[in-house]
Structure formats: C-alpha cells, structure tokens
Design brief:
Layout lengths: L25 H30 L4 H11 L5 H12 L12 H13 L3 H11 L22 H11 L13 E5 L5 E8 L8 E6 L4 E4 L8 E5 L4
Antiparallel strand pairs: 1-2, 1-5, 2-3, 3-4
Amino acid sequence: MSRNTFGSLKTIEYIGPRPQKPKKNFFGGWVILVIALAMASLFGRPLLASLRSEQVVGTEAAADLTIEELSESNAAGDKLAIAALSLTKSSKDSSAVVCSADLISKSYRLALGLDLKELLNEDMSNAFAQYPQLWYERGPNKSVDSNRVPNIHRFFHRSSEDFSQSEPLIGDVIFWTLPDGNAHAAIIVPGPGVHAKEKWIVHHWQNGVVWENKLKDFTMVLGRYRFGH
C-alpha cells in the first residue's frame, strides 16, 4: 500500500473556473480624487481664511490707513479707536503706555479730552469703600490708582452702562479676567485692510501696545462700556 509524501494528508483538487484578477477602474479613481480636491477647496479656504484672520496682527502702515479712514468721523467711538491705534506706534517713546489701564486713560485723554486719572480720583474720594480693596490702601492714591485695572473697571461700572449683552461697537472698552486671574482691558477698534469690518482690539500686552484679532478669545468678560460717548 502506497503512502504519499505527507502521510495521511491528501491533495484537494479545486474544480471550477480559474480565478480572475480584479479589473482596475481608473475612471472611478479619478472621480474620487476630483471630489476630494473639490471638498478640500470648498471647506479648506474658509478654514484657512479663519486661521489667517486669527493670526494677523495689525502693522504700523495699516494703522496709518485705518486712522486716516476713521478721521472723517466725529463719533466718540471712532475718536477713541484713532487714539488707541496711534498708541500702537509709540511703544518706544518716552510717553509709552505702561499697562492696559494706562492705555485706556491715555486714549480717553487724546480722543475726548477726559482725564480719567482726575475723574477716578474724585470718585474714589467720594466712595472709596465701593472700590476694590486689594492694595491695603486707606484712601485714594492718585499716583497709582489709574494704573490699576480693577479701579478703572469699577469707575466705568459706576459711571456708565454695561453693554456686554449687546453688539460690540468701535470704541467700547472691554474688561476681562486673564487665565492667571489678573484683570485686563482693551479698546475695540476696526481690523486692518480686508479685516476692516471685523472687531479687533488694541491692548497692552508683553511690554507693548498691540492691535490684534482677539475679541472672540475672551471667556471671562467683566464688562464692556461706552463711557463718554
């Protein structure tokens, strides 16, 4: 009795048609590629534009053009925006802004002729207990009070209406809390060039005054005001 090489295992014979290789569908592949490119173009451009919008910072040349356009208006908000934008160009001057509260004070003096330092000191003298007791002061300290954002915020809160729930306007002053817990402030201005219809901000950041598309970044807004308008 014969045995095959593999002992008890026997070869199984396949009976049926010979397997065919699948045909390549070049047309289908090109259609998928075209659709993919179309989708990328349709949805990628708005996303790219959005990312660029978030990353753009206004330049000095753009500030000059925006100031020139705003100068045709007599609106208080536009005047405040002009003043704020002008301060983005003087960060190296001896009169440079030293903090966000100083930015607000100087913008109001340049734009509307209002001395927030004097107004704040007068209000604090009349109602010192209504102001934040964060610095162990026994009374108003005219030399530093106007450079403390919580004091400027309380003055705006006491002297004007809070518009936080309404559409932001050019010249609005906005206060918010930073992730580190510190209070911060900015003035709302138009964006540069093609972003002119957007609402940007001018604020003091990292030792200088900057013009940025950061208005939508605020998550802990303390208030938005239109004092002096």
